[in-house]
Amino acid sequence: MNNRKIRMGMVGGGRGAFIGAVHRMAAAIDGEIELVCGAFSSNPKKSKLSGQDLYLPADRVYGSYEEMIKKEKELPLGERMDFVSIVTPNHLHFGPAKMALENGFHVVCDKPVCFNLKEAKTLQKIVKKTGLIFALTHNYTGYPMVKQARMMVAKGKIGEIRKLVVAYPQGWLSTKLEDSDQKQAAWRTDPKRSGIAGAMGDIGTHAENLAEYISGLQIKKICADLSALVPGRQLDDDGNVLLEFNNGAKGILYASQISAGEENNLNIKIYGTKAGLEWYQMEPNSLIVKWLDKPMEIMRTGVGKLYPEAQEHTRIPAGHPEGYLEAFGNIYRNFAKCVRARLNGKKPKAIYTDFPGIEDGVRGMLFIEKVVASGKSKQKWTKF
Amino acid sequence: MNNRKIRMGMVGGGRGAFIGAVHRMAAAIDGEIELVCGAFSSNPKKSKLSGQDLYLPADRVYGSYEEMIKKEKELPLGERMDFVSIVTPNHLHFGPAKMALENGFHVVCDKPVCFNLKEAKTLQKIVKKTGLIFALTHNYTGYPMVKQARMMVAKGKIGEIRKLVVAYPQGWLSTKLEDSDQKQAAWRTDPKRSGIAGAMGDIGTHAENLAEYISGLQIKKICADLSALVPGRQLDDDGNVLLEFNNGAKGILYASQISAGEENNLNIKIYGTKAGLEWYQMEPNSLIVKWLDKPMEIMRTGVGKLYPEAQEHTRIPAGHPEGYLEAFGNIYRNFAKCVRARLNGKKPKAIYTDFPGIEDGVRGMLFIEKVVASGKSKQKWTKF
Amino acid sequence: MNNRKIRMGMVGGGRGAFIGAVHRMAAAIDGEIELVCGAFSSNPKKSKLSGQDLYLPADRVYGSYEEMIKKEKELPLGERMDFVSIVTPNHLHFGPAKMALENGFHVVCDKPVCFNLKEAKTLQKIVKKTGLIFALTHNYTGYPMVKQARMMVAKGKIGEIRKLVVAYPQGWLSTKLEDSDQKQAAWRTDPKRSGIAGAMGDIGTHAENLAEYISGLQIKKICADLSALVPGRQLDDDGNVLLEFNNGAKGILYASQISAGEENNLNIKIYGTKAGLEWYQMEPNSLIVKWLDKPMEIMRTGVGKLYPEAQEHTRIPAGHPEGYLEAFGNIYRNFAKCVRARLNGKKPKAIYTDFPGIEDGVRGMLFIEKVVASGKSKQKWTKF
Amino acid sequence: MNNRKIRMGMVGGGRGAFIGAVHRMAAAIDGEIELVCGAFSSNPKKSKLSGQDLYLPADRVYGSYEEMIKKEKELPLGERMDFVSIVTPNHLHFGPAKMALENGFHVVCDKPVCFNLKEAKTLQKIVKKTGLIFALTHNYTGYPMVKQARMMVAKGKIGEIRKLVVAYPQGWLSTKLEDSDQKQAAWRTDPKRSGIAGAMGDIGTHAENLAEYISGLQIKKICADLSALVPGRQLDDDGNVLLEFNNGAKGILYASQISAGEENNLNIKIYGTKAGLEWYQMEPNSLIVKWLDKPMEIMRTGVGKLYPEAQEHTRIPAGHPEGYLEAFGNIYRNFAKCVRARLNGKKPKAIYTDFPGIEDGVRGMLFIEKVVASGKSKQKWTKF
What we know:
Dihydrodipicolinate Reductase, domain 2, 14 strands, homotetramer, alpha/beta, nine-stranded mixed β-sheet, 12 helices
């Protein structure tokens, strides 16, 4: 290929959106990707204005994703977009993802991957059939210290895992925000756009993904108690779940959007036979290691000899805090490296293939279906 | 009464014991109580040696609690002990407590109050009948910031409670310590001395007591998953419990003694409609208040205007950390104040009546029975 | 102007450099700026290779800054670069800055602004004469919570300032790293490239700038003790300074690169008559406010009602940590907004004019000269 | 000797006092000492009432220290007090200490040891001549993690010390509290009772003592800037000092009582060639070790293999926080063990001889005189 940046087209993310801007910043940070086109809104006028905000030429701003995919495909390779980034609400993931893949474009998709498990499984087949590259932005796995934790577990540093506690408390839905004009609250609490789960779909899937990513284990059965604690809310805003993993380890997962005063406090604690690990998303550059018989250690991004998996996802020296956008950027950076390798007919370095994909998406949808089913069941355990 | 200290006799707590020394330090710190006699071991020789260590006269060191209670009763008031402190393993609480009460002595008893619920209910009747003062050392409720939290909830500062997460992870039983000579591990993992529960009885009851003390709520139903994760262990060393409270609030309680690297990390988070509260026993002088719409506050022992309930349980100025022994000492201080008032035929100040009693003990035993039953049940919910 | 990004040319920052990549990421993150050309190394071949790494067309990669400025000037506006970003070692700031300004290009320059005070004052005159926009990357002032602190002081929230302690400990020069091939250590410890100060120039100036930025005060006199504590080192690697400010407040500034184990621990504490403020660069999203008579508050990026100056420099919701690159990016974002306004013949919004400029640069060079002079003096105080 | 507790008589510490109660709690906690008499106030009536509060017999409560020492001496050994604890303001240390020693009583004295250096040196001679045991309550050296830090330095774990920063900020004198009835503020800001220094004498000496205790170094020269920042205050309420130690290490000491919102934030950072140590009095059970090339460690009271010097000063298992009173109690416990050994004609275990004595007292008074002299000098350095 020519010596050029990888070219991104975006679906969603127009004025007033939240996650679209995050995707754009994350994609831009490493200088590997450029935004070349977009269908930023289902309202063509709003899409145009959004494209202007982003300094795109008018002829690359489209009124619908269908139009974008069709028109871009007609452009020569190197001019047309290389991949589509989908940043719409959940019910609008499947359509553009399917069409993009079927027209030869790689895809980055926001989570959860689809509206329901059935869609996710269909998409999985399409990804498999097309052989294209698909990334799902479970961005929290992009943090260097999360990767360090995963490697420590994989290398047996903490022994056999016995217990895992993953928590994702937020407080922003403590009031009935969806009754105001708040766009983010509105779609997330609406079963027609969000799916069968509220907090469990929005952030519970992040918790599930993080737990399985670091531990290398799989959830085998669950016992869930889901609630809509704000009167009148249609979907769960709080859920508490007992876990059992495939190695027999026990655990707890909870996700909440009514934990008053909590910002975005995703955290995980994993206890093995030799040590415990603890990580907090809000102080992401520290990984706490609690040993059975010696002083606890605080591993820090960029300090000492970390696993290459952690080092390669770090940009700047220790003590210069990297945050959410950098972790998110790691997903995009790795995805871009893989797309570039594909364009060059090469195999990407193994380390760049480390980003969540369609399997994580299917697993997330399975989690949503099972956790909702368990929540309704009178039996203690629901198998995964 | 004469102007003198309140006089304590101790049952248990001889050489090699842990909690006996804690009780003695806690009782001594405020200068309100003096140790005057003891039956420190069921081994009379060991009891004598322990008494010597404590500078007691030989004739006040007894070979059994029966002997102690009998002989002390024969001494004149003011010379004889005023109360008995019971610091033996769980299966040895009921006997001395019953006999002490029936012979007119007030009682301080370590937790859980008895070996089983039946004993506890019998003891409750005896306490009621004798009208004597009974304190149970759920010592964590003695911390000033725990009392501040309780008062904030009671005064409506955090609104209606929606969610509560209480956790008590320890790691000291991560190996099969009971196979060594470790006395503390041995009895705690032995159903004959500990009762039907391991971690749940030893520390789960503290978590349950703390949750109900601060929240002012009562657990209504539970769903428990208890495990003995160290191979060959006879009692649970880890337990995860879903909770529902009497006001409809949801919650999680977990207690673990195999959470590798954890010291004694009791902590609680309570979320109301207006704010969240967070307290960590290992940094007990801070109470974190997370407000919905304004900056989080860190309330600190001794700083600013706290509720009298917090202030009255603080000894020294802000920034001079008070710890576990001081909190424990608050139970003893209040108990002693009540005994003194009784001796003087007066009513104690209301603030001094704030210590756990036989009702907390009965509730703790109920918790143990229910949590073990739920652990065995295939149904999701077990009513309290 | 056309609807387009602002165009950046870079001087320095080729392969193996550190701060150049930081500038590029900071400039890219908000999608306001694109890198269009560069003279990345004084070695033309290395410059070419670096340009390739960055996906630049070969004809926009130059062998020297002189060539770059000359050639770019010949291109039409909108195609040519709009500004030059200078990321070379200290002794190579003045030349490209002067030439860029004199040829009509705005400038972003790394700190300290020049090799010595004389150069800085000359540059100040050129900036004034040309009327062009000049930004100095004292990037730590780009953090939202630093801006919140500054506004709180300005609005009198903490009362009259009495004491200020600013510290900047690092540990990376604890060994004689300059004897290895470490490029960053080599130039920073070399008087020919770094100037008369080592740690004091490299990071002491950041501390000085941060202190004056937040406090709104000016240092009036100092008493410095500078040392080269690693044997054989040519420039100071540790310095401790007593301060007096223009309002009579007292203070301490210290900077160190031999504080073993410290990462990049810039922090500041400011005490007024009503409250104290505390901020740590390594946890930049928290601002601690310690009130005289009420609980301490932790203000957090994105939480509650912050001053617009803080809010406008925040990209994502609370609890999604923004870090060093985002703060650095705020300097570039504001600079770009001002350049865009200039191109459009408009006045920028006041909030966008908040970035360090040539005056900060001159003040930093004055600090370096005074602190070195004080270090050599036997008198206690040296006037500023 | 008989098997009995060591007997304490107290000078000062009557109703309304602060530090007297601290001494009593610290002395009581380990069950080694009992309070048998006191001259609690120079007002005989107040002394009597205070004695009643403490449940002392009326005939052991004296109207003056002279009376106490005279009368107690007439009692038989074992009945009379074994030592005197002096808890009066600074100007009232020398008299009772001298008389107690000259009448054969051991002494515990609050810090700073005397009103001025001359008194301290006289007292040193008397201690030497009488051969009696003298303890000075620089209580912060009683913390287990302080002892761990001292041992790590002594054993070379952090290499050669290069830099030390010790800080003791408080905020309680941010207003002119001495104009109210606040007894603690009144005498501490009064040159007639406090001596020539304010904050520097009250807490600066603690900082100096802690720095030399942990580092094993001695301050060789200083450069001080002392201020009375609250208008009208007679003694310094803030002081900043540059340090040079006898091994060439550099440092900073600051003490302040006008650092608004600070509680009692004594902390120290020591940087060697191999690692840095960091300790905060307000979280005293953690010792932070920052290594040059590996993850930072948090050593914790009771966790893993600590030096015996740390372990022997710990009472309860890890995670049960020990605080200020326990550290203070360690001074008393060790002192009591030494008195007991003396009474038994034995040599105490080496570990029990670890408490501050008259030499620390003389050094503290020297520090006060030098720091005040340096504060007034126009020369940079004042030799110690």
